[in-house]
């Protein structure tokens, strides 16, 4: 706290991990002796840089770029790039810190990083996005590489932006380095199944939690916040598994459809037409739109999947969900539930899947994209989906077993933190003090 006084989100993420690790240190004194806790909370490096670019009127704009290379004990730094006006060093550090443990949980050889800019893509033309992205990557290209640091998409960064970054990187380097980015278009170097992976993976994880209680998605009602990449594919898979999605949102408000959200309409509006979620009601009789995104949690449901952004679900929202009989919550977004909300869910017996486990499917398929790029071949969507299911089942089991072994049966927050930490900490001890 003394070292990072203004980094609210980073302190929140670190506190949650520290709280979970108490039972680990009595069994593993070597981690104390090796200063693991002090080292694991200090990023390897934080890079910040100016991004100057010209808008369509010819005016020069300046944004700030970030890349946090947090920990590479298990592999090259790996984590998304976020373009959103709220981006700052605390948010970047919290995301990179979480990413380190999440990536460890996947069992794949990837370290943790995150990057982005306070650039707001909303309302920008395609050419402005390209010019900004090229300027951003011109600086970042000095610090990344297929064996060094492999960025991907996140909020505000999809395959279009990754395409511009990839093109500019190769132009600067004068070659073709397929594995330097993931989240590329499957027609040129990307993996099939990547765009669906985080949302599908989240639903697979929640299905594992439900299975443990002899339950499933079948016949359940579901609320999904957001209507971006993660939300859309979480809805699609939840529907495929036999549930009815009643509501989803964007940062302005939410839609409620008593007949079940039609995910194809949401895809058309958000993935292709760049429209607000409000437009949905024009196409579906009986559906309603309400201003204010947080009121979505007032819609009664069996399963809640917060898939929008950090701290979007607070204690008061958790209380409403519990009052309405929610049985399971899976975090599709990163840290969408506040600490108080998580504690309330757990105290009331709600099954809770924490982000670093429940949304690890995206980065898991990103690591598969790296493998395919290295092998210069591509897997079918069915192959990728099978591997994704297996990864999510393994993550669930690791979290479940770690929670049991360290005296917190059923607490997947503790389980995920411990299982991820042990992998990273073991490697750090093996690699010596630095
Ligand atoms: P997108 O940019 O595709 O979508 C974000 C969505 O959330 C948009 O619909 C946005 O609406 C909405 N939103 C933003 N703020 C709020 C809010 N306060 N309340 C309700 N809706 C809001 O991002 P992604 O889907 O890629 O990412 C969502 C979350 O998942 C992030 O936390 C991200 O870090 C995490 N994540 C993403 C992965 C991926 O593979 N994409 C992997 C792992 C985690 P609007 O259009 O109004 O801004």
Walk me through this protein's architecture.
- The chain is of the alpha/beta class and 434 residues long.
- It has two domains: 42-187, Leucine Dehydrogenase, chain A, domain 1 (Rossmann fold); 195-353, Rossmann fold.
- Helices cover 46% and strands 16% of the residues.
- The protein has 15 helices and twelve strands.
- The protein has helices spanning 8-27, 29-33, 36-40, 89-105, 126-140, 159-173, 194-212, 229-240, 263-272, 315-323, 339-347, 355-358, 361-375, 381-405, 412-430; strands spanning 45-54, 60-71, 77-83, 112-117, 149-152, 221-225, 244-249, 253-256, 288-291, 303-306, 328-330, 351-353.
- It has a seven-stranded mixed beta sheet, with helices on both faces.
- Strand 10 (303-306), helix 10 (315-323) and strand 11 (328-330) form a beta-alpha-beta unit.
- Helix 7 crosses helix 13, helix 10 (315-323) runs parallel beside helix 11 and helix 13 crosses helix 14 (381-405).
- The longest helix has 25 residues, at 381-405.
- It is globular.
- The two termini are 22 Å apart.
- The model has no long low-confidence stretch (mean pLDDT 97).
- It binds NADPH dihydro-nicotinamide-adenine-dinucleotide phosphate.
- NADPH dihydro-nicotinamide-adenine-dinucleotide phosphate binds at residues 153-156, 198, 225-231, 249-252, 293, 307-309, 312, 332-334, 359, 362.
CATH architecture term of the largest domain? 3-Layer(aba) Sandwich
Question: At the third CATH level, what is the topology name of the largest domain?
Answer: Rossmann fold
CATH class of the largest domain: Alpha Beta
Distance between the termini: 22 Å
Number of helices: 15
What class, by secondary structure content? alpha/beta
Low-confidence region ranges: none
CATH superfamily of the largest domain: NAD(P)-binding Rossmann-like Domain
Write down the overall mean pLDDT: 97
The Rg value, from CA coordinates, equals 21 Å
């Amino acid at each position: 706290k003394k070292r990072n006084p203004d980094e609210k989100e980073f302190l929140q993420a670190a506190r949650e991990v520290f709280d979970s690790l108490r039972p680990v240190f009595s069994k593993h004194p070597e981690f104390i002796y090796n200063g693991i806790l002090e080292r694991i909370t200090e990023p390897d490096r934080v890079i910040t840089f100016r991004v100057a670019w010209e808008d369509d009127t010819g005016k020069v704009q300046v944004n700030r770029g970030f890349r946090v290379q947090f920990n590479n004990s298990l592999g090259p730094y790996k984590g998304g790039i976020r373009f959103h006006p709220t981006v700052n060093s605390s948010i970047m550090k919290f995301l990179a810190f979480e990413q380190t443990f999440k990536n460890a949980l996947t069992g794949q050889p990837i370290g943790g990083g995150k990057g982005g800019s306070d650039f707001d893509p909303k309302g920008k033309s395609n050419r402005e996005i390209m010019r900004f992205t090229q300027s951003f990557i011109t600086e970042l290209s000095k610090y990344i590489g297929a064996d060094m640091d492999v960025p991907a998409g996140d909020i505000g960064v999809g395959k279009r932006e990754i395409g511009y970054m990839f093109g500019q990187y190769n132009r600067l380097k004068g070659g073709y380095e397929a594995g330097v980015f993931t989240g590329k278009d499957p027609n040129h170097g990307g993996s099939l199944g990547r765009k669906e992976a985080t949302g599908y993976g989240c639903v697979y994880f929640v299905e594992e939690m439900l299975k443990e209680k002899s339950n499933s998605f079948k016949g359940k009602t579901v609320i999904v916040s957001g209507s971006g990449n993660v939300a859309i594919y979480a809805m699609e898979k939840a529907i495929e598994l036999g549930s009815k999605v009643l509501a989803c949102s964007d940062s302005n408000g939410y839609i409620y459809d008593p007949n079940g959200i039609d995910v194809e309409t949401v895809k058309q509006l958000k993935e292709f037409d760049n429209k607000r979620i409000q437009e949905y009601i024009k196409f579906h009789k009986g559906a309603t739109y309400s201003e204010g995104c947080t009121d979505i949690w007032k819609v009664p449901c069996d399963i809640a999947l917060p898939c929008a952004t950090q701290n979007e679900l607070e204690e008061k929202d958790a209380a409403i969900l519990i009052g309405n009989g929610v049985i399971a919550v899976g975090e599709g977004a990163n840290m969408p539930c506040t600490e108080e909300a998580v504690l309330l869910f757990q105290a009331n017996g709600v099954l809770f899947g924490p982000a670093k486990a429940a949304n690890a499917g995206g980065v898991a398929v990103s690591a598969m994209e790296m493998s395919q790029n290295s092998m210069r071949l591509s897997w079918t969507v069915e192959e990728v989906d099978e591997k994704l299911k297996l990864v999510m089942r393994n993550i669930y089991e690791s979290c479940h077993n770690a929670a049991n072994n360290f005296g917190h049966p059923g607490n997947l927050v503790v389980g995920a933190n411990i299982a991820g930490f042990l992998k990273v900490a073991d490697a750090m001890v093996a690699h010596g003090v630095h």
